[in-house]
Amino acid sequence: MKERLAGIVEEALLKIEKSEKLDALNDIRVSYLGKKGELTSVLKSMKDVLPEDRPKVGQMVNDARSAIEKKLEEKKSAFEKIILEQKLKSETIDVTLPGKKPHMGHRHPNSIALSDVERIFVGMGYEVVEGPEIEYDYYNFEALNIPDNHPAKDTFYINDNIVLRTQTSSVQVHVMEQKKLPIRMIAPGRVFRADEVDATHSPSFNQIEGLVIDKNITFADLKGTLAEFAKRMFGETTKVRFRPHHFPFTEPSAEMDVSCFKCGGSGCRFCKGEGWIEILGCGMVHPHVLEMRDIDPQEYQGFAFGIGLERIALLKYEIDDMRLLYENDIRFLEQF
C-alpha cells in the first residue's frame, strides 16, 4: 500500500510540474483528489486492510493528499503571478505620452436660439413658464376665443376633449387662472400641427408664447417691447414694422417684420428681395379672453405674441431648410 501511495504522489507531482495552463491543474485535482480519483479509490480499499493497520494507512493517504494539494497551490500561485505580470505589462501607461483631448458635444442651434430669447426677456423682467404638451381642448382653443369651426382645430386629437397642443398660448390661460397680476411671462415649448414636412413646415416644432397683463398696457408697449427684442436678437440697426392681421385671441392683431439683417433692407436672396422678414404674430389680448378668466378688461389690459423658435434659429444662422435642424447630421451640427 505504501508503494502504491508513493507512486500516486510521484505521478501527480510530475504532472503538476509539467502543466502549462491554470485549467490543467483543475483536471489534475479531479483526477487524484476527486470522488473518483486515485486517492479516493485507495480509501475505498481500506476494507481489505487489517484493522490494526488501518490508522497507519489512513495517515499515509492523508499525507499523500496534503503533498498533492500543496504542490497544486504552489503551481497555481506561480501561474497567477505570471498572469498578473502579463496583465500589468499590457496595461502599462506611459505618462510621458501627450493627453488625448476628449470629443465634446455642444448645444443644438435650437437650444442656442432659445437661450438667447430667454436671456433677452428675463432681462426685461419676464418669467419663463412651462405647460403640458397634452392639453384639454378648452385650454388650447375655447379659452383662447377660438370657435369650434376654426381651421386650427383640424389637428391631432387624442379623444374629443384632449389634443396635442397647437400653441403654447394655452400656457397663458393656466397662468391667468392663478389670478396673480400683473403677469409678464414667456412660455417656450413643443407644439404639434397637421402640417406636411417641407423646408419651412413640420408637424412638430417649438414655439415661444409671450404674455403681459397689467394696468394701462397699450399697443405702444407691445411695439416697444418687440422692437427692443429684435435689436437685441438681430443687431442694434434692426428695424421693425407691424402689419394688420387677425388672431381670435387678440384684438387688434398684427404680424411683425424685421429689416433684413443680411442686406440691411435693400433686398437680397435671403429676404426674397423685399428687405423685410416676417418673424412673429402679436396683438392686444382680446377682452373676452380676459373676461373668461374673471379679469376686468376695463382695469387690466395685456398683449401677447408668439415666436417660432425654429424660425429664429433659421434666421439667426442663415439656414434655408428647417429639416436640417432635425436630421442630427453631425457635419451640419458641428458648424454651431
Structural class category: alpha+beta
Tell me, briefly, the overall form: elongated
Using only C-alpha atoms, the radius of gyration works out to 41 Å
Q: Give me the count of strands.
A: 9
Average pLDDT level: 86
Order of strands, widest sheet = 1-4-5-9-8-7-6
Q: Biggest β-sheet: count, sense, barrel?
A: 7 strands, mixed
Order of helices and strands: HHHHHEEHEHEEHEEEHEHH
Number of helices: 11
- Uncertain segments of ≥5 residues (pLDDT<50)? none
What portion of the residues fall into strands of 2 or more residues?
Answer: 15-25%
Question: Which key terms come to mind for this protein?
Answer:
336 residues, alpha+beta, seven-stranded mixed sheet, two-stranded antiparallel ribbon, 9 strands, 19% strand
Concise synopsis of the structure shown:
Helices cover 40% and strands 19% of the residues. It contains eleven helices and nine strands. It has a seven-stranded mixed beta sheet, sandwiched between helices.
Indicate the topology.
Blueprint: H1 2-18, H2 22-33, H3 38-44, H4 54-90, H5 109-123, E1 127-128, E2 134-136, H6 137-140, E3 162-164, H7 169-177, E4 183-192, E5 204-214, H8 219-234, E6 240-247, E7 250-259, E8 276-285, H9 287-292, E9 301-308, H10 309-316, H11 330-333
Parallel strand pairs: 1-4
Antiparallel strand pairs: 2-3, 4-5, 5-9, 6-7, 7-8, 8-9
Helix pairs in contact: 1-2, 1-4, 2-4, 5-10
How would you portray this structure in words?
By secondary structure, the protein is α+β, with helices and mostly antiparallel strands. The protein has helices at 2-18, 22-33, 38-44, 54-90, 109-123, 137-140, 169-177, 219-234, 287-292, 309-316, 330-333, and strands at 127-128, 134-136, 162-164, 183-192, 204-214, 240-247, 250-259, 276-285, 301-308. The strands form two sheets. The protein has a seven-stranded mixed β-sheet with strand order 1-4-5-9-8-7-6, sandwiched between helices. A hairpin with a 2-residue loop joins strand 6 and strand 7. Helix 2 packs antiparallel against helix 4 and helix 5 crosses helix 10 (309-316).
